[in-house]
Amino acid sequence: MRNRWNLTVLLGLTLLALQGPTEAMRMRGEPLPGLANIERHRSTEAVPQGRVAGGTTAAEGKWPWIASIQNAYSYHLCGGLILNEYWVLTAASCVAGLRTLSLLVVTGTVDWWDLYAAYYSVSRIHVHCNYDKPLYHNDIALLQLSSKIEFNDVTKNITLADIDELEEGEKLTFAGWGSSEAMGTYGRYLQEASGTYLPVDACREKLQNQDDVDLGHVCVQMDAGKGACHGDTGGPLIDEQERLVGIGNWGVPCGRGYPDVYARIAFYNDWIRTTMNGCTIA
């Protein structure tokens, strides 16, 4: 009986391993997106061919507020959003545990391999004090840059959604350089895809998960074959007025018909503004 139980457990673990990762933008029990890729080099990688699952290539200048958060070797880690000349918003899971010298912020391009894009160093990393308390909550961070971002036709700041007025079924669009399949290659060119807003209770039911989604999250339902994937963490979710309503947090990989989960910007507005003004708030 004991030997049979051990065999059953072994078969179960084998099946779990064969299923691969269980999270798209973040994987439970695995290194955080930033830490996982902090030592990767462009020179050791093939030219990336991946893309957001089911996404289409974004036109140059269509997402002027998006940034690629990269490591010191100019390898893409996560997405980010330009708030003003010195501040960039991203997910805490992208930068937690990293030093400022390990990060670069790249703006003004849809090609994260663009050597002629604008590169900025980071002077301070501000991770939400309650990040991952509990797990998958408060996954938001601010990067303070060492020099001023130069705005132009392809580099601008984004408008934040101050008030939570999303309605069920409302169209929302996200963009990122993530892979098209779990653990796949990151896309070289920015991809975009659209879905519809799903309220928290409906999202919990769809995900069969009561613990990891709350009022601090925005859920987006996309058709099967579309969705966020690895490399899309920290990327923007915008409404039809091009206001930022969320940043990529976590989901089920990749484009399997489950909702993707974003940090709700209206929920964190006070934290964002007080942190940028030199104060701290939980």
Automatic annotation (TrEMBL):
GO BP terms: namely: protein processing
The family database entries (Gene3D superfamilies) matched by this protein are listed as:
Trypsin-like serine proteases
Asked if the keyword Membrane belongs to this entry, the reply reads no
Identify the stretch annotated as signal peptide in this record.
1-24
Q: Where is the Peptidase S1 domain?
A: 52-277
The cross-references to SMART domains, in alphabetical order and at most eight, read: Tryp_SPc
Q: Which GO terms describe its molecular function?
A: serine-type endopeptidase activity
Q: Where does the UniProt annotation locate this protein?
A: Secreted
Q: What is its main location?
A: secreted
Q: Which UniProt keywords apply?
A: Disulfide bond, Hydrolase, Protease, Secreted, Serine protease, Signal, Zymogen
Stated name of the protein: Chymotrypsin-2
Organism of provenance: Drosophila mauritiana
